[in-house]
Design brief:
The complex is a heterodimer of chains A (about 375) and B (about 325). By secondary structure, chain A is an all-alpha fold. Chain A has three domains: about 110 residues, Cytochrome Bc1 Complex, Chain D, domain 2, CATH 1.10.760; about 90 residues, Orthogonal Bundle (Cytochrome Bc1 Complex, Chain D, domain 2); about 90 residues, Cytochrome Bc1 Complex, Chain D, domain 2. Chain A is built from 17 helices and no strands. The mean pLDDT of chain B is about 90. Chain B is built from eight helices and twelve strands. Chain B is an alpha+beta fold. Chain B has three domains: about 80 residues; about 100 residues, Cupredoxins -  blue copper proteins (Immunoglobulin-like); about 90 residues, Immunoglobulin-like, CATH 2.60.40.420. In chain B, about 40% of the residues lie in helices and about 20% in strands. Classes of the chains: A mainly alpha (about 375), B alpha+beta (about 325).
Chain lengths: ~375, ~325
Amino acid sequence: MRRTLVILGLLVALGAVGALLFAWSGLYNVAASVPHWPPTRWLIEFGLENSVETHARGIEVPPLDDPALVHAGLGHYEGACQPCHGAPGQPPNPLVRRMLPEPPYLPGQELRWSPAQLFWIVRHGLKYTGMPAWVAEHRDDEIWAMVAALLRLPELDDAGYRRLLASGARMPAGESARLLAAVGPAGEALVACARCHGLTGAGGGAGAFPALAGQSREYLMASLKAYALGTRASGFMQPVAGALDDEQMGRLADHYAAMPTPPVRPAPNAATERGRAIAERGLPERGIPACVTCHGGNALARNRLFPRLDGQHAFYLAQQLRLFAVGTRGGTAFAELMQATTHGLDEAEIRAVAAYYAARGRPR
Amino acid sequence: MRRHTFTRFAEALPAAVLAACSGPQSPLDAGSDEAAGIAILSWVMFAAAGLILVAVLALAAAAARAPAEQPRWATREGWVVAAGLVFPIVMLSALLAWGLSITGGGGGASSPPAAFRIAVAGEQWWWRVTYLGPDGSALFSTANELRLPIGQRVEVDLTSADVIHSFWVPGLAGKLDMIPGHVNTLPLVAGRAGTWRGQCAEYCGGAHALMAFTVTALPAPDFERWMAAQAAPAAEPDNAEGRRGRALFLASGCGACHAVRGTPASGTIGPDLTHVGGRPTIGAGLLPTQRGTLAAWIVDPGHLKPEVRMPPFPVFRGEDLRALAAWLESLR
């Protein structure tokens, strides 16, 4: 018995040494030009499939029917995913086709994974494949927006995809060229901003993309920096903002700060009454102060780091309030104030306040 | 050496024990008739309890040393009836009647009418103090501080905004709970000039131990001057630093929670700061009011008072912070 164990041990050790020698020799070919040996390929895919299935168990899928989710997800897809996974109407990129494993071309394909599995893959990425993990790991709301977009992708043709991507009002080509030229060397960066926020900063995408027009330069700069540093966590914004230097940020902030905003108008009464009450008086008995103290324009001198909320999109406002309320929303030096302010707001109150401010800038 | 240490200890002990008998938060250093009554009651109870203890020990010792053959008097049933039933019933009933007469438990029909009322609400973890006019309307609001005219009877309406607190100024009166949705009334009469410390006496959450306040008794003319000053709006800053501090206060959202009468700041969530510079303490009895402590509090209140509801303002630094603290200190 003891003899058998010794022999077994020796065999294991010999195997390990052999494997090490094989790796050391360099005989294994790591070239992407040479496909995997079919049994290897089978084993890798078998392992991957089962790993995703096991780890995605227990993930609960939230409602994904808000159109803003698809807009938000597709806006990011076009910037970050499309280079590898393709877009409707565009043939697969020949460079990407030479990757091993080749990233699946997604447009028009039947989905291989369930929503929960897609969520897990987008959040964590896949080892050895080139699929990155989500930049802001705790922004589950962003990852679910990606899932909503991926669920929609198979049924989109070129025109449908472009229609969902387009944000803000269409403008004549000459006008957009003029705006791009005006920001000078930051023009290319502005294209990336404009993909979601529009060239004039009107935002949109059913409210997924905040309006930037008319915010102060200081607020826009501080927000871009917070995104770039990751102190305001966002898998959508950090890759874009992280690529900018201070000068580009300054030009972009100047550009959007100078864009015109629709005039503020009183919100229609009945529908937004609850939101108006919270905005103007707060809920002092629960320690929630009035929004207007900082975000209102008239009574107090405006702090340049406090954003303008009139006319901001409701989906965006509600999403930010939720992030503040759970304490994960960074931003300017004042972001911590909002965490204390919003703590204890419930979902109905968040929606009411968001609807009130959105209605104040929208033409009736 | 050992003897010397012991002597020093023996000399220091009475001083240490007696030191607890005076001071701003001692029930034995009475500043009012009620507190004096409570102090006498306490001393009588201590003395009587001591005598009873000595008597019981003496009887126990006598019983232990007695011969096996007990004398007749020692086994009489009358001992149990007299010392075990009659004595406690008489003694405790007398103490109860006396105690109730001191703490006003029997109703205050004979007491003079109150000069005025003060509403005090306990909130986690500070005291919202509102002086009321004859018609019950609020004259002004302050925090963590009461001032009283000497010799006048003042009624304090106690309630709570969140959990149960207890209002206790040991030098002036007994403690009384502050209950959400209910008003308890505590009469206060300060017998002499002085400042007493009060403390929340019912555990109310994380910073309970740091929830204190002061009560200051003033001669009537001084008190009237103080009332008039408190009712007035905040003074205009008379220098550039003060104006800068006020501008920062108004531009940084402070007014969402704090009111400073005479400015647009009208928040009601935190303490009214109209005359914060004139209060003895900040942070509910935590630190003396100075620009240094104010600045430290603004930057990181949770560091000084864990779990405090006010968020930190690390955004203020250098000149800005000094200006803000200087303006608040000037609000007397």
